[in-house]
Specification:
Helix content is 43%, strand content 16%. The chain has 5 helices and 5 strands; from the N terminus they run E-H-E-H-E-H-E-H-E-H. The longest helix has 15 residues, at 119-133. Strands 2-1-3-4-5 form a 5-stranded parallel beta sheet, sandwiched between helices. By secondary structure, it is of the alpha/beta class. The protein has one domain (7-133): Response regulator (Rossmann fold, 3-Layer(aba) Sandwich), CATH 3.40.50.2300. Helix 1 packs across helix 5 (119-133) and helix 2 (39-50) runs parallel beside helix 3.
């Protein structure tokens, strides 16, 4: 996976993983997705970059509510990395709480999307994700 463009998604819910995978395949079959299931796995993924094993993602999509280490805790840890701002970080969560959105923006997160309740809206959101990742 070194020098290959991909989108990294931190999402613990298998149904959401399936829906995201399906939507991305429908929008663009070539987009490579890498899933991690919690904040610890997310931080570990970037250790592989530190070790020269993988490249950085084109886009990082993070669910806030994950087990073991939540999305905000993991992002706080990653914010200390010199490369953190070299890719966009998006929160994709069930919460639409304005205070939560504000806290995320203050952390340096580029955008915040509430998980849609229908597949058509998800396709529109995934189209936005693909544009943000700048993967052609």
């Amino acid at each position: 996976m070194k020098n290959k463009k991909y989108i990294l998604i931190a999402e613990d819910d298998e149904d959401d993983q399936f829906l995201l995978s399906s939507a991305f395949k429908e929008i663009s079959k070539e987009t490579e997705l890498v899933f991690v299931e919690n904040g610890i796995e997310l931080v570990d993924h970037f250790r592989k970059y530190d070790e020269g094993i993988i490249s950085l993602p084109a886009l990082l999509i993070v669910d806030l509510n994950m087990p073991r280490k939540n999305g905000k805790e993991a992002i706080r840890e990653l914010m200390n990395k010199p490369y953190f701002g070299s890719f966009k970080t998006i929160v994709f969560s069930t919460t639409g709480n304005e205070i939560e959105k504000m806290k995320c923006r203050e952390m340096g997160i580029n955008d915040f999307f509430v998980k849609p309740s229908d597949y058509t809206t998800l396709l529109n959101v995934v189209t936005e994700f693909k544009k943000m990742a700048k993967i052609v």
